[in-house]
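User: Assemble these into one structure.

Assistant: Restating your components, then the assembled model:
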Amino acid sequence: QKEVEQNSGPLSVPEGAIASLNCTYSDRVSQSFFWYRQYSGKSPELIMSIYSNGDKEDGRFTAQLNKASQYVSLLIRDSQPSDSATYLCAVTGAGSYQLTFGKGTKLSVIP
Amino acid sequence: IAGITQAPTSQILAAGRRMTLRCTQDMRHNAMYWYRQDLGLGLRLIHYSNTAGTTGKGEVPDGYSVSRANTDDFPLTLASAVPSQTSVYFCASSENSGAKNIQYFGAGTRLSVL
């Protein structure tokens, strides 16, 4: 059974700070990694995808992947109150392309 | 451009009743998925379809059935609803079923089974 683990939070950061969200996964052959953002009462929306080791930057967001440690993270720079949401980590395996989701980390950005 | 449309938005259902949740996408995506989301359990895959005419079971398929008669529609049926099926249901789609394919989600259906 593939597992994706995230701290449930809540993670509270002041406005303008860096928010760091972490995710570990159990399937060593996982290929693709995604971060979704979900506002309360809304559906998940993709904010980042990463497929190879290292960092990938998109605006204020940076995804970091370390396959040897089975670890993927999301950094949000200059956090804004509008970033307050639950962040879901999702992983696909090699044999199956289905997504396995973590339970999500709730982020609160305090003005 | 609508993307993925789910209906109904919400529903209260008596236990034992049959219910079909509708999902339609206009992106001509080959793959479609049904998830349920419960507090403390996250998103769990119920059924999926890699292409029209094929379906597969996800992590929690019991009590649910799906069909994929064409590319655009992927209805989810609860044959005889039970209270444990109270949840928020999300339909999603992706261009193909490969590992790098991004899934896009509908707005969800909030279902209460009493």
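The two ends of chain A are 40 Å apart (CA to CA).
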